[in-house]
Amino acid sequence: MPALIPAMRRSAAWLCAALALAGSLHAQTPPPAPDASVVASAAPYKLRIVGGLAGINQYTRQEEPFWSKELRRLSNGRFEAEIVPFDRAGVPGTEMLRLLQLGVVPFGTTLMSSLTAQFPEYTAPDLAGLNPDIATLKSTLAAFRPYLEKSLRDQFGVEMLAVYVYPAQVVYCKKPLRGLADLSGRRIRVSSSTQADFVGALGGVAVLTGFAQIVPSLTAGNTECAITGTMSGNTLGLHTLTSHMHALPVTWGLALFGVNRAAWESLPPDLRALLRHELPRLEAAIWQESERETSDGMACNRGSNDCVGGRKGSMVLVPVSAQDERSRREILETTVLPRWVQRCGARCAQVWNQTIGPVRALVATPAK
Prior knowledge:
By secondary structure, the protein is α/β, with parallel strands linked by helices. It is built from 13 helices and eleven strands. The protein has helices at 5-24, 57-74, 96-102, 134-156, 193-201, 214-220, 230-236, 238-241, 261-265, 269-302, 322-344, 346-354, 356-360, and strands spanning 45-51, 79-85, 107-111, 158-165, 169-173, 187-190, 205-208, 225-229, 244-251, 254-260, 316-318. Helix 2 links the parallel strand 1 and strand 2 (79-85). The longest helix has 34 residues, at 269-302. It is globular, with a radius of gyration of 22 Å.
């Protein structure tokens, strides 16, 4: 029994947080039908949304304005929404899918990487080394998306409405870097198991560190390098703390935006139609923003005159060499994919071989 006490406490704490969140993010239930004489003055139908990462341009420039302003404009004042970033919503991202399933959160966003421990199959489209450019990422996701939509609907009662992406996650280092092989022996900040697999295969030491701890860790010497976004790294000031940045996207950062199916079906039909029409446009705008920021972050970090949205540094941008590309492919095939299958199981190997495998010409072998 004593061994169960910490788990019971965590469950109790999670339940309290979920109940508190339910009070502020309760599923949208229409009020009783008003008298016909006052319909014209009725308040707008309001949604409550848990969005993406706070402070990131994909949220501040795209998501937040869409929900807080555009929805009302597009519906001529009939519908509106409030949105809060998921990292300020008071519940761990690892619980978001479960909260959507329960209906505690009607509309919510979660990073795919946060699902690694509980639902590793959903991390398949963004394995480390899988997508060396955004065009490849788009085709990978397109192959996986039908399975993802069906699985979320059938297993969790969640309707997937969009998939967002963050800028490329690349390697920043404090010491000179000529290629991926030079990462051997270095302590490198990672944010996921798949990044750790990639770093380990290069001979580096993976250090799992939260985004907010990147700078303190580098400053204290606990890490020598860090994997993070090209522009988010600039925002953190890594262009002043590190000297070299490798151009290879190790991963990107995908996020699911979904809705509890019962909450979705309770919405007015014209609101559902409006969201089905407009959310693909929001998704496309976020992908365009991420592609721009990937390039702009690199330009700013190296001090190019092309820098637009960040602060100019004087970093050395290390291009992807032919050897780096061979290493990326080899590590993906021999380490990253097999370890993902090992964590995920035989069913995941089957799903991979039916979706992503054919478009990437890469077969997953079930773990023995």
